[in-house]
Each structure stands twice: as structure tokens, then as C-alpha cells.
Amino acid sequence: MKIQNFKGNQWSARKVDQVYIVSLKNHSNIVEALLDFVQHQNIQSGEVTGIGAVSEATLRFFSFKTKKYVDKTFNEQMEVANISGNVSVIEEKPILHLHVTLGREDYTALAGHLLEAKVHGAGEFIFYPLNTRTVKTKDLETGINFYDFEK
Hints:
two-stranded antiparallel sheet
């Protein structure tokens, strides 16, 4: 078993064999910090999962009617019940496609595409990189980025 530790401005990580365990600093922006981590480790394909707590989150919902995303920000303390997503490359830059389920104080839940969220407490993630480069391109019919295995 090979173990290595890494540190960024908003994150610290431990690599165990090929898997990364990542902790985000309190008050950091999740997507921004995770993108920095992915770039630092040169991850171009893989899976990510996570849990934690946030003080605000901006979610996106895709409207097939307009082919546009609708964003909504929630400013309250919430538990991150789950973040799941993937890492790929769009126009030569790594991208995170994340979905989130957030638990509110009244035990209701919010869910959607995660645009950004601010850690308030903990942000704990596991990255499962793949030894390949996965490219996404925009499908003109749907307006959504899909895997393009020809690139």
C-alpha cells in the first residue's frame, strides 16, 4: 500500500494507492476547491463522492423547454447528505459534474446540480480517478454536455 499526503490552499488530501481522501477547509467553496485539487493532481476522469455541511448552496436545474439552467441559491445551514459526480475534460480543462442532496433543519431535502456551496463545518470527499482522459462535448439537440469517446 502506497500512501502520500498533499496540501492545497483550501484542501488537504491523502492518496492511498490510486484513491484520494480529500478534506476541505471550513468556509471554502466546494467546487472551486475541488477543481483546484483535480488540477493539482491532474485528474482527467473519475468519480467523486462526498458529505459535509454548508452555509449556502447554489443549485441548478436544467429546463429542457428552454435548454438553459435555472439557478437558485439557498442561504441556510444544511447537511450534505450526498454529493456524487464525475470528472471529465471540456475544452482542455477539467470539469466537475456534481449533484447534491442537502438536508435542511426541518428534515426536508433539496437536490440538484451543484453550482457552488460554502463549507460550514466539514467537507469530506473520496476521488476514484480513472487512468484515462474523458472528454465531454455539447450536444446541440439537448444543450447538455455528453461524453465524447471519439476524442
